[in-house]
Structure formats: C-alpha cells, structure tokens
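Researcher: Following up on the earlier apo prediction. This time include the ligand. It's S-adenosylmethionine, with the SMILES given after the sequence.
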Amino acid sequence: MGRPTRGTTGTNRLRRLDRWLTGPGAALLRAADDPLVVDLGYGASHTTTAEMAARLRVVRPDVEVVGLEIDPERVRAAAEGLQRAGLGGTGVRFALGGFELGAPEVLGGRRPVVVRAANVLRQYPVAEVGPAWRLVASRLAPGGLLLDATCDEVGRRVAVVVVGDDGEPRELVLSLRLAGLERPGVVAERLPKALIERNVPGEPVHAWLAALDDAWAREAPLAVFGARQRFAAACARVRAEGWPVLGRPGRWPLGEVAVAAGAVGL
Ligand SMILES: C[S@@+](CC[C@H](N)C(=O)[O-])C[C@H]1O[C@@H](n2cnc3c(N)ncnc32)[C@H](O)[C@@H]1O
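Model: Understood. Below is the ligand-bound prediction.
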C-alpha cells in the first residue's frame, strides 16, 4: 500500500532515531520475543538501514532488520549496495513492501517490534496518515511501535510521532543538534505531516513549540555553561509549567525531549 516518492537519504542521516531506539526504545527491543525491526521506505540506498542494524545490535545482538521499499528498483539497488559494502549476512535484508509490510512471505507471518518510517509519510496527503498508521500498527507485535519520523537533510532536526500497536499516537519526540541551535522551534519546518499543517496560533502543537522557545530564551544565561545545560533547563521549565514531558531528564542534554501526544493535539 502506498506509492513511490523521492528517495532522498544520506549516510548517518537517521542517527538520532537510532539513538532513541537504543535509549528509550532499548527495553522494548530487549524484551521482544522476536527481535524483528522494519525500516519502511529506506530510500535510494542501503545505508541508513545497515547503520540502524549495526546500532541496534549493540542492545539486541540477534536483531534482524528488514528494509522495505515500495520501489522495486530501490530494493535491487539496496541489496547490491549491501553486498558491495561487504555487509551481507549481518542480519539485514531488503524486500518489496508498503504500509502493509509486504506480501505474506516477506515477513513470513512474523510481526515486527518496531517499524521506522522516516521521511515517508511527509510526502503523502494528511488524510492518508491516520489510515497508514493503523495499517502498519495492525502488523506490529503486541506492544510494538511505529516511528513516523521526519528530519532535515543531514539529520540535525528530527521530529517523531511514536504510534502504538493500536494505531494511536503516544508521544511526539523532538531531537535537535544543540550546537549552534538558534531556538528549539526551528524544528517546525520538519514536523511530521500529522502536525505540520496545524502549527498555527491557537493549535496545541504551536503552543508547545512556543513554550519551548520561551523557556529556551529564559534560560539564555545558562548558555555560558553550554547548550546542553541550557536545553535541559528549558525542558525542566516547560515540565514545571505543566506540559506532560515524558521520559528521563537524562535525555535532555542530548537535545531530546518527548511530550504526550494528546498535549500537542495528536
Ligand atoms: C525521502 S525517502 C526516505 C529515505 C530514508 N528513510 C531517509 O529518511 O533518509 C522516502 C522513501 O519512501 C518510499 N516510500 C514511499 N511510500 C512508501 C510506502 N508506502 N512503503 C514503502 N516505501 C515507501 C519512497 O519510495 C522513498 O524511497
């Protein structure tokens, strides 16, 4: 289900997503009965899928990562690229598939614990996002997650809607490179499709980004100690203001902050 779109990708582009999976997502991977992960819509090269597998192996050595593409030419190119890079036999393979996660033989009746769809749904009309979430979610293992993620060309500004196995959004994760960050709200142009058109005054997602920007500005004196401290203080401030910030404060100095989906209108 779906249709081919631009295949733009890049080496190391999705490192912040891999870091979330090996951080907050690690417990899920470790506990999985079947450590199967799908990288849906990996684009014009095998690279980000192979990088993902290498990083996930650190928390789950027997992880198997299946890259699925709706464009058959990209499946052929990725399989060749993997072999050329000497990465055959490393728990990575590529196959044809869309939001239904391929023909029955592709996953052989197995259910992935994680599906990453990075920079895929942004190219679809917003009306197709919810149905795509529900279709992917219906194929997940119990307790599994879909990451509907968006980022800039070099992966410095990332936004992720984490969707549960019921097809409902759980949280919005923002992950930003802090060096040189002007303000957290610059991620606005990279919001996933479900949010980007709603980022206007009066909408909850707009209020969330404005609250982060305001907290960042108020914590400007901490800039002398570095952007990590300043960002962590800004996250603590928005949480103290009542925003349902999720997860461990230890993630904040990494430029990562998560908020409950309902708070941003998802
Ligand atoms: C912009 S690229 C993203 C590549 C990579 N994930 C990244 O973020 O760097 C989007 C890719 O998603 C693929 N795609 C679009 N719809 C899809 C679907 N329903 N199922 C699988 N792949 C899809 C396109 O063919 C394209 O190669």
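Model: The longest helix spans residues 204-218.
Researcher: Noted. I'll compare it with the apo version next.
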